[in-house]
Design goal:
Order of helices and strands: HHHHHH
Strand content: under 5%
Structural class: mainly alpha
Radius of gyration: 16 Å
Oligomer: single chain
Length: 162
């Protein structure tokens, strides 16, 4: 999160979305790796592996886009404001989330907030982005992560200790 917060925003929605989402995905991969290391539930561990596989592939797409994309202007202030609001909302949700020490539970709960933030940022990309490949990726992220949130919620209900 600190790396995303310190990322210099250019105001180019496609560029900033790609930069931010690449870091955001790496955060999800880091959480999923922790689940693989510490989690006990085979279903949740399989979900973590799926997060790693999917988001590593998307990081490659984002990196390829950034390698061939020059920042375009003028800066889109509305996009930048939406992006910052989404990040603040996720940070607040994470700060309010009760960490139980159970790796499976904590992974699922934190990933719900994490994915919701990615969905919100992807929706901003759809509104303000100009490049079809980034808009297509944003829509794919929305679709995939909405389904994963539902799956994470189902697993939290299955594993609840009460």
């Amino acid at each position: 999160m600190a790396r995303m917060d310190s990322m210099p925003m250019t105001g180019d929605p496609d560029h900033d979305f790609a930069m931010m989402m690449r870091m955001h995905h790496q955060g999800a991969i880091d959480m999923a790796n922790e689940e693989l290391k510490s989690g006990n539930d085979d279903t949740v561990r399989a979900m973590a592996q799926k997060v790693i596989t999917t988001q590593q592939a998307e990081i490659t797409e984002l990196s390829n886009f950034l390698a061939s994309h020059a920042v375009e202007g003028p800066p889109n202030q509305t996009f930048m404001m939406e992006h910052m609001e989404s990040m603040e909302k996720m940070m607040k949700a994470n700060d309010l989330r009760v960490i139980t020490g159970d790796a499976d539970n904590d992974f699922l709960a934190l990933m719900i907030d994490h994915h919701q933030s990615a969905i919100e940022n992807s929706q901003s990309e759809l509104k303000f982005g100009k490049h079809s490949e980034m808009k297509a990726l944003a829509q794919r992220i929305i679709d995939e992560q909405k389904m994963e949130i539902n799956d994470f919620q189902d697993q939290l209900l299955r594993l609840k200790p009460y």
